[in-house]
Design goal:
- The longest helix has 14 residues.
- α10 runs antiparallel to α11.
- The chain is globular and about 70 Å long.
- It starts with a helix and ends in a 10-residue tail after the last strand.
- The protein contains 19 helices and 9 strands.
- Strands 1, 2, 3, 4, 5, 6, 7, 8 and 9 form a 9-stranded mixed sheet that branches.
- By secondary structure, the chain is an alpha/beta fold.
- It folds into 2 domains: 186 residues, Serine Threonine Protein Phosphatase 5, Tetratricopeptide repeat (Alpha Horseshoe), CATH 1.25.40; 190 residues, Vaccinia Virus protein VP39 (Rossmann fold, 3-Layer(aba) Sandwich).
Length: 402
């Protein structure tokens, strides 16, 4: 092996991607027929987030070996990261045709087919990925979620139980979260790693999927409600669970300083690219509020945040503490009747609007307005949502305690 290739591999394995790419590129320039150099250059460039150079390197590798399933799979990965799901599907299908026993290509094809709504194809390839590699936890969890959504609860339970046995893995915690939902338990919140992975996995296609496929219109409804309740420009606002910036875009012209907060780094990358927010921070919404200066925000937006929180008490108290007198909190939930919150089989939470009003009042937040509305499509039906607007009127607790 070329000494530079050995050095490049060491740099790659140690995480020095820039040095690895430089060395791989030098080897490929001097030996343009070296398949490994082009392939590893593409891999390292993709890991750096440099999708253009990664695609070019994999294309050179493909020219050298057009029948390499690994090269096709990685070309699919680059297209997937770029948001070209149809192009990614074509490459993943080609990879599976070339090597039907490549588990990662099966998983990638199943995951992407699911994202574009090809559920039968997704199930086929996720099942095969699990058959090929029994400890493929990502594939098992995704297959379990798909089976649950398709009404195959017992088969879904088998997949989640298999993953839950891997103690210490974040994926095991995710599987236990779904088992909790299926078996009627009601934990206060899901694992952060689960929420982060769900949204990072959809970052490239999130806006189109949510708005076009699921008919999500909460940001526009929230923007109209804020304009109705507080005409004029608000000085400071925080968009909790900001995602790619759909809700921020609905408020940008009406806010002086707009802060975005989200657990998922790839969602934040997409939001940053839009230039909507004055500042962005990765982290838990409640933790961010806890370290914010008290009584300084004029608006806190929390659209679909409680869907991934469960017990809303801590978040409501932190919002009350962060809001200036007269400041607004606008939030949305999936609607429920009879209990404050309930973990659903989907892995999300639903909340009772009246119970939320009562809890908000105890936190110093007065209910001003609310809207019942179709939150998003689910198959042939709609999930019913509720939007509430609250004003800080009473002194808020000094800390996040009850």
């Amino acid at each position: 092996m070329d000494k530079r290739m050995k050095k490049a591999r060491r740099a790659h394995e140690s995480g020095d991607l820039a040095a690895a790419c430089l060395l791989y590129r030098k080897v490929a320039k001097d030996a343009p027929g070296d398949l490994d150099a082009w392939y590893l250059l593409g891999t390292a460039e993709a890991e750096r987030g440099r999708l253009g150079p990664a695609a070019e390197a994999f294309a050179r590798a493909e020219a050298l070996d057009p029948r390499s399933a690994q090269v096709q799979n990685n070309l699919g990965n680059v297209l997937h990261l770029a948001g070209d799901l149809p192009g990614a599907l074509t490459r993943y299908r080609r990879a599976v045709d070339l090597d039907p026993r490549l588990p990662q290509a099966r998983y990638n094809l199943g995951r992407t087919a699911l994202q574009v709504g090809e559920l039968a194809e997704a199930e086929t390839h996720l099942r095969t990925a699990v058959e090929l590699e029994g400890n493929f936890l990502l594939a098992r969890n995704l297959l379990g979620s798909l089976l649950l959504d398709r009404g195959q609860a017992e088969e879904a339970r088998i997949q989640f139980l298999a993953v839950a046995g891997f103690q210490g893995s974040p994926l095991a915690a995710e599987a236990r979260h779904f088992l909790d939902a299926m078996e009627g338990r009601n934990p206060a919140r899901p694992p952060d790693a689960y929420v982060r992975r769900v949204f990072d996995g959809y970052a490239e296609n999130f806006d189109r999927h949510l708005v076009e496929d699921l008919g999500y219109g909460a940001p526009e409804l929230a923007g109209a409600l804020v304009a109705e309740l507080r005409p004029g420009v608000l000085a400071r606002a925080a968009d909790l669970g900001c995602g790619t910036g759909l809700s921020g875009a609905a408020l940008r012209d009406r806010v002086g300083h707009l802060q975005g907060v989200d657990l998922a780094p790839r969602m934040l990358e997409a939001a940053r690219a839009k230039g909507i927010y004055d500042s962005l921070e990765e982290g838990d919404a409640e933790a961010w509020l806890a370290k914010s200066r008290p009584a300084t925000l004029d608006l806190v937006l929390a659209l679909d945040v409680l869907v991934y929180v469960g017990d809303p008490g801590g978040l409501l108290r932190r919002c009350a503490a962060a809001l200036a007198p007269g400041g607004l909190l606008v939030l949305t939930v999936e609607s429920l009747t009879g209990e404050l919150y309930r973990l659903l089989p989907s892995g999300r939470y639903a909340h009772d609007p009246q119970a939320l009003r009562d809890l908000a009042s105890a936190c110093g937040l007065k209910a001003l307005a609310d809207r019942a509305f179709p939150l998003r499509r689910h198959g042939e039906s709609w999930i019913q949502g509720w939007m509430g607007a609250f004003e800080r009127v009473a002194p808020a607790p000094r800390d996040g305690s009850s």
